[in-house]
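_Per-residue structure_
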Amino acid sequence: MLFLKKLHKWLSLLVGLQLLVWLGTGLYFNLMDHQKVSGNQYKQTPVVAQVDINRLVEPQLVLSQSKQVVSLKQISLLEHPYYLLTHNKGLYSHFDNDYSLVDAYTAEPVVIDETMVRKLAQSSYNGKGVIKNAVKLSPPYEDIPREQNEVWQVNYADYIQTSVYIDAGSGRIIKHSNDDKRFVDIFFMLHFMDYGTEGSFNNVQIILFSLFTLFFSLTGFIWTIELLFNGQYKVRFGNKSRTLALFDKDLEPIGEFDLTTNTNLLDGLIDHDIALSSTCGGGGTCGQCKVRLDSSVKVTSAEHVLLTKEQLQQGYRLACQHDATETKRLTLIDVTKAKKYLLELTHSEFISPYIKELRFTVLGGEKLKFKAGAHLRFYIPPAKGISIPARLPDAFKYYWRDIEYLEYEHQACSRSYSLANGDGQIEAGTNELKFTVKIQNAPNKSIYPGVGSSYICNLGLGQTIEAAGPFEDFHAKPSSNKTMMLIGAGSGMAPLKSLIEEQLCFHQKERKETRGIYFFYGARTEEDLLYKDELYRLSRKYPNFYYYPVLSRPHKNWSGAKGYVQDLLTSNINKICQIDGVEFYLCGPPNMMSATINLLKTKNVDATNIAFDEFI
């Protein structure tokens, strides 16, 4: 099913783009001047010859003097009668045909040469232009793509560059074309998907597109049926609530709670200060918000991927995939006691071209205690957004020069961001919360930028937002003396910096022995190196802390490591210490994460020694 979904999404892009092309070209066809784009502005009907019947040669005589003839026809060219002999006849006139021409008065064979062609072209042209040249051509032709016979092209020096095409065998005026006609032919090519310029809508491209559209419809139908059977299509009227009985993991009753039916269980539980782990914000991709429901509750496609068969049989489900209408009881598996807080923005500063440091104060004065590496889930309200940040410093405008300005509206959602607080704050508790958030920009107007990052990074000082937590899924192992190796990039700096400060500035006071801490951090340019001065200061102050920055697009004067952070780790991992004595902590872009995890697997690193934060 996962493959069908991916196929459906890619096919939707292909079909959607071609539908836009059809709509655009179809609109043009409705608005265009049909007479102007026909190519016939200066076309006229040649004068037909007045035939003297008494002078005509008997057709039988002509046939007796010619090779095998399929048909004979009397025609008029330049006000003179001729016999057109067809020796090989195609189904249509533009198919491969073999003609010869005979004077109907003298029975003499006639060769259509340049002199005759110029006269033929002039007989069908009523413009003021003069003939520039006449050339004999062989197929294929841009202006007449279906034509398979040799033709003469007579070009006129008029303002629309008229060309007259004449069949080299029969003298037939095939077509007039000009720049207006050539322009509209581009739209016909796009509309009929005639990308091979075959001059026909019966082409391989449109046949393939028909098959793609068929698969798109079938995969969409299958997906719809699956959602229907899983109970994920529901019609709701109003904001109703339903009472659910909650139990802990030991099946001890917690109590009864009213949950609204127009939201999923993940978001509904947070209103009762019950927070389930979720780094994807309810998108059904992280698989962390596990609960136990009645085993009869239908399984969604996300749960088929993220949960085992045994778990599904035992009633394990993802809270983000179900709502209160589907069950009467709910068993919590792994619950963090968390609550919602109202945060006020007190500081907002660009610390790199795409990353902001944000500081919030918890209204009410309550202090939060949490482990380094914890995160909060922000609740983004429906709002209008923009693709280029407001209050962008002049020094960073250069980096956003290729981003198209876009205004858009987005629905409510939730996003998780790591806390960047460090040193003693996190143990003593604090009401000032620090974050480093990367603004996910939009490459073009067809794609929205990151809704959550754009919203909170465009908040003004004094504005408020709700957030829940803290969630402590990513943290240093307690009482461990193993070497710590931290690998990060981009806004993955936040939880890793917090871990470093926790270990150096707080826990080190309690340890008799210090352990090595190695921080590998990747960025594109030196402007993207977050907190580099502070990290260099820590490396000078604490002899057990080592900072390894690496740039993928460095300036000429950069003397440090170049490339990607996972490559720098590869070249240094065996030089530091025995790999069995190392704990790895990862946070950064998906490509960096997957490459680093694959590297650690090749080194046979135990999975229990790898911790990673999947959101950035």
